[in-house]
Amino acid sequence: MRAAEQHEITAGRQSGADLMERAGRGVVDEIFKKWPKLALSSGTAIVVCGPGNNGGDGLVIARLLHDRGWDVTVFFYGDSGRLPPDARLNYDRWLKYGNVRPFAELKDFLTTIGDHNHPDLWIDAVFGTGLTRPIGGELAVGLSALSNWSSDLVSSHGGYVVAVEMPSGLNSDTGDMMIDRSSGDDGSGWYCDLAVTFHAPKRCHFVGQGPDLIDDLAVVDLGIRTNDFDAVRLVRPRAKTNMTTAGHKYTRGHVLVLGGPRHSTGAARLAARAALRSGAGLVTIAAPRDALDIYACHETEVMLRPMDSAQELQDMLQDARFDCLCLGPALGVETAVALMPTVLDADRYTVIDADAITALSRSTDLIGQLHAKCVLTPHSGEFARLCPDLVSEPKIDAAEAAAQRFGCTVLLKGRDTVIADPHFGTQLCASVYEDAAPWLGTAGAGDVLAGMIAGMRDPAQAAWVHAQAARNFGVGLIASDLPDTIPAVLQSLWAETETPPR
Ligand SMILES: NC(=O)C1=CN([C@@H]2O[C@H](COP(=O)(O)OP(=O)(O)OC[C@H]3O[C@@H](n4cnc5c(N)ncnc54)[C@H](OP(=O)(O)O)[C@@H]3O)[C@@H](O)[C@H]2O)[C@@H](O)CC1
Ligand SMILES: [K+]
C-alpha cells in the first residue's frame, strides 16, 4: 500500500497532501454514512493523533468536522517538529482552528468528562500501518485509559469510536495488538465501532485480534491506480462449474470417499453428500464390509464399495475414473496410516482431512509422499500437530510456509480460513463483519467442507460457498443442513453471471 502511494506521488498523479485530504474526507463521509443522525447537527469529537501520517489523517478529520460546526478537541502524541511533511502541513492548518493538547493530558482530561459533556465521536488516529514496535509507557497507559473510557461511553451514552485504518496498536500484517505488557496493559487492545481503511483492507482486518476489535469496516478508495498493493487477497466468488452440455457424470468427476467403521459413519456421509451437492458426477464411499448396511440405510445417490484393506483400495483404484479421493473424516488414525501410502501413490486429486492429517503428522514417510494434487485441510489443532514449528508464525505466513514445505495446497481453517497454494498464491476467506457465521463452528462442518472441495476441485471457492451456505441458513445450523444449502448458493452465483454452462 505504501509503495502504491509512493508510486502515485512520485509519478506526479497525486500529491501526498491530496491523498491525506482524501483519506480524511473519506473517514468523515463514512462516519456520516454509518450514522446519518450525526450529520444532522454539530456534535463534539475528540481526535487523538499520533506522530505519523495516521495522525495527519486525524488532523484532516478534525478540521473537516470543525468546518461543519463540530466542537473538536485534538490530542497529539509525539514531537510536532518531527512530523512527516503532509502531517505537518495539516498540523499547521489545524492550529488556525484550534489548539493541540499534549497526549500526556489525556488521562486526566477523561476524568473531567461528565454525563452531560461526553463526546459523540472519538477518533483514533494514533497509529496506522507505520507501527514498528510494541506500544509502551505513557502511550499504552493513555490509550488503555481511553479504551476503558470509550467502552463506558458506548455503553452508557451511545457515542462512537472510529479508528483510522485500524485500532492503534494493531499490527497491520498479523492482526496482533503490539503492546508492551510490562506497561501494565493486558494487551487485549481497544475496540472501535468503525474502522475506515484506505484503498483495500489489510490483513489485520481479517486475521488475529482485528475482527474482535473492529465492529464494522469501511474501505475508502483513494483513486490509486497501481495494483501494487500489499493488501490481503480475499476469495472472489465466481460461478464455476464442471458441467458442460456435452459432458456426462464421469466428466464431472467420480469422488471416492474413504468411510469409517460402523460406529463412525456420519462424517464420511456428510462429505459424500456435500461432494454430490457441489458438483461431483458420482460419489462412492469405500468402507468396511460390516458398516455398509449403515451407509446404505442413509444414502440414496451415493454408491458403496467394500474395502477392508489397502490391497482392496489399490484394486479399486485400478479404475482411473475414480479421479478424486477424500479421506480423513472419522476414518480412524490407524486406518488412515495404513491406507495413505496407497492413496498417495494413486496420484489423484486428494483431499486430506481430520484423521488423515493426524496420520500424516505421525509419519515423515507419508509427508514425503504428498504431491501437488493434494489439499490438506487442517484446523488449528491439526496444524499444530503437523507443523509445530510454524504455530507461532502469523496465520497467513504459517499456511504459506506449510504449502511450500509440502508442495501442495494447505487450507488452514477458522473464522479466517487461509487457502495457500504454492503455485497460485494465497487467498483468505474470512467470515467476519456482515459475512460472520459463528454457527459454522459445529460438529461435522469440516467434513462437509472436505467433501465440497472434492466436489468442486477448488478449495478457495469451496470455502466461500461453505461459509455462504452457513450464512444463508443462519443460527441453529447443524452440519447436515449444509449440503442441502449449497445449491441455493451456487444458483445465486449463476444468476449473477450471464454465461450459462456450455
Ligand atoms: N502516505 C500517504 O500518502 C498516505 C498515508 N495515509 C495514512 O498514513 C498512515 C501511515 O503513516 P505512517 O507510515 O507515517 O505511519 P503511522 O502509522 O502514522 O505511524 C508512524 C509513526 O509512529 C511511530 N511509531 C511506530 N511505532 C511506535 C511505537 N510503538 N511507539 C511510538 N511511536 C511509534 C513512528 O516512529 P519511528 O518508528 O519513525 O520512530 C512514526 O513516527 C496510514 O495508516 C494512513 O492512515 C493516508 O493518509 C493515505 C495517504
Ligand atoms: K488508528
UniProtKB/TrEMBL annotation:
Residues at which K(+) binds: N54, D124, S168
Known catalytic reactions: (6S)-NADPHX + ADP = AMP + phosphate + NADPH + H(+); (6S)-NADHX + ADP = AMP + phosphate + NADH + H(+); (6R)-NADHX = (6S)-NADHX; (6R)-NADPHX = (6S)-NADPHX
Organism: Marivivens niveibacter
Name of the featured protein: Bifunctional NAD(P)H-hydrate repair enzyme
Cofactors that this protein relies on: K(+); Mg(2+)
NCBIfam families xref list: yjeF_cterm, yjeF_nterm
Keywords: ATP-binding, Isomerase, Lyase, Metal-binding, Multifunctional enzyme, NAD, NADP, Nucleotide-binding, Potassium
Keyword Nucleotide-binding assigned: yes
Function of the protein: Bifunctional enzyme that catalyzes the epimerization of the S- and R-forms of NAD(P)HX and the dehydration of the S-form of NAD(P)HX at the expense of ADP, which is converted to AMP. This allows the repair of both epimers of NAD(P)HX, a damaged form of NAD(P)H that is a result of enzymatic or heat-dependent hydration. Catalyzes the dehydration of the S-form of NAD(P)HX at the expense of ADP, which is converted to AMP. Together with NAD(P)HX epimerase, which catalyzes the epimerization of the S- and R-forms, the enzyme allows the repair of both epimers of NAD(P)HX, a damaged form of NAD(P)H that is a result of enzymatic or heat-dependent hydration.
Name of a matching Pfam family: Carb_kinase
